[in-house]
Amino acid sequence: MLGFITIRPYQLLSLLRPGLWISQLSGLCAQPRPRPMANSSSSWELPLVAVCQVTSTPDKQQNFKTCAELVREAARLGACLAFLPEAFDYIARDPAESLSLSEPLSGNLLGEYTQLARECGIWLSLGGFHERGQDWEQTQKIYNCHVLLNSKGSIVATYRKTHLCDIEIPGQEPMRESNSTLPGSSLESPVSTPAGKIGLAVCYDIRFPELSLALAQAGAEILTYPSAFGSVTGPAHWEVLLRARAIETQCYVVAAAQCGRHHEKRASYGHSMVVDPWGTVVARCSEGPGLCLARIDLNFLQKLRQHLPVFQHRRPDLYGNLGHPQS
Predict the structure, then answer these.
(1) Residue 221 needs a FRET pair 20 to 30 A away by CA distance; which of 95, 268, 297, 307 works?
(2) Active-site residue identified among 52, 161, 188, 259
(3) Where is each CN hydrolase domain found (predicted)?
(4) How many whole angstroms separate alpha carbon 225 and alpha carbon 44?
(5) Per the residue annotation, which of 69, 73, 86, 177 is the catalytic one?
(6) 203 has catalytic annotation
(7) Which CATH superfamily, name and number, covers 48-311?
């Protein structure tokens, strides 16, 4: 049905005793993967999430068509929540084009996604929407807004990216996000979803562990970093940063990414993935557009936090109070 989509192998995130195996659904193969603890529940009872990888262009309607096909496939496979990457709506050729294509949250494009969520009965993490805020007329700048929709199509959370990517990396097109984008002023409290409590972030936020620790303190069980990493920083930092954020917060980390060449000026690394709280990459896409799936085991998360209680060992007297994750 969706010939251009490759469904990547995904892991059943069961908690196994050390030395036992975890199944990987790729034909009938299995790979040895040591795990720290035992689990009493069947992995088939665990919530399934889908991570969508796309190559956005300046064509908004074509981008929506691509994303919608992936979301429908995710719903067909039984996912309760689908994650889309930063700039799922479009990637423009320059700041002027980016501003001209932007919309408010009440615009037509978000309306199409709310209808899609209702149609599929699935939650959607829309990882980075070019939002014309209420201050658009005064500032002529937009927000990089992570929007979370429930399965009825209602907006249940919005997070505006707080760390803007102003960087110059040799071999990569310079980024000056602040030229067209305003930083958000606050974090969003973690949101309860069918997969667990989700803490919202966007791309460059991944380089700031204080943000992830603050979300974990506030109760997050899943951190999500929708991104558009470049072809230079991607191979060097992408997986390392995602695994580090998972290990230090003892959260699942879900990272939907842009991939491939968007236009003549920009390309992205891809390699969307899900990392469990032990730091294991349990699902990933490769370079091209596609979909990967993972099951979220909150029992594993709670047992890991119990057996390795790093938040109880923190020293707020030395470096500030980030506390213990809420139960």
Answers:
(1) 268
(2) 161
(3) 46-298
(4) 26
(5) 86
(6) yes
(7) Carbon-nitrogen hydrolase (3.60.110.10)
Please say if the pLDDT value at position 6 is more than 90: no
For 113, counting Cβ atoms within 10 Å of its Cβ (0-12 exposed, 13-18 middle, 19+ buried), the class is: buried
Domain limits, the chain: 48-311
Share of the chain above pLDDT 90, in %: 76
> 52, 145, 165, 203: which is the annotated catalytic residue?
203
Q: What pLDDT is stored for residue 33 in this prediction?
A: 38
Alpha helical stretches, state H, the chain? 60-76, 95-101, 108-120, 136-139, 209-217, 233-249, 298-307, 316-319
**3 state DSSP class of 6:** strand
| Residue burial 131-145, b: 16+ Cβ < 10 Å; e: rest | bbbeebeeeebbbbb
Sign of CA dihedral 1, 151, 291, 293: negative
What's the per-residue H, E or C state across 168-234? Answer: CCCCCCCEEHHHCEECCCCCCCCEEECCEEEEECCHHHHHCHHHHHHHHHCCCCEEECCECCCCCHH
Does the annotation mark 152 as catalytic?
Answer: no
Is 86 annotated in the active site?
A: yes
pTM reported for the whole predicted model: 0.86
- B/e letters for 247-273, b = 16+ CB within 10 Å, e = fewer, are bebbbbbbbbbbbbebbeebbbbbbbb
C-alpha–C-alpha distance, residues 144 and 294, integer Å:
26
